[in-house]
Amino acid sequence: MTRVVLVRGPRAASGSGGCCGGEVRPFDEGGSHRHVPPADAVGDVYRALRARLPDDVAIEVVSPSNWLWLVPELVRAGRRRGLRGAALRRSVRAGMAVESLVVDGVVVASGGLPEPGAAVAAVEAELALR
Questions:
Q1: What's the number of domains the chain is made of?
Q2: What residue numbers bound the domain in which 17 lies?
Q3: What are phi and psi of 50, to 5 degrees?
Q4: Which of 18, 40, 104, 124 has its CA 20 to 30 A from that of 59?
């Protein structure tokens, strides 16, 4: 099965903290203050990928803090792609970065997601190489 992994960014990864963490809710949700919601690059990319890719492609959204799942997944997928030694370490490190996009062990974007259309094109291009 093909697996696409989206590593969330710091704002999306934080379950608490910031102005609306814990018990405090924004005004829009009945709380005491209002703010502009953050852009959700990961959600936009996920929706674009889900709309264009076949149902048999698994799309996982993972927090960078979930290294217990992410590191073994990146190592296994990298090894299946033939990576060893320093190349495998570089690939794992790039895949652990916030807002990364990984297709079956190949890091397509690291440290910043492309626009949804560009992300879909990059994933489709990587899938076509097989």
A1: 1
A2: 3-128
A3: -65, -35
A4: 18
pLDDT tens column, 73-104: 999 999 999 999 999 999 999 999 999 999 99
Distance CA 9, CA 79 (A): 26
What is the pairing mode between strands 100-103 and 58-62?
unpaired
The candidate with the shortest Cα–Cα distance to 96, out of 124, 77, 115, is: 77
> For 46-75, how does the pLDDT look when each residue is reduced to its tens digit (9 = 90+)?
999 999 999 999 999 999 889 999 999 999
What is the phi-psi region of residue 82: left when phi exceeds 0, alpha when psi lies from -120 to 50, beta otherwise?
left
Cβ atoms within 10 Å, residue 2:
15
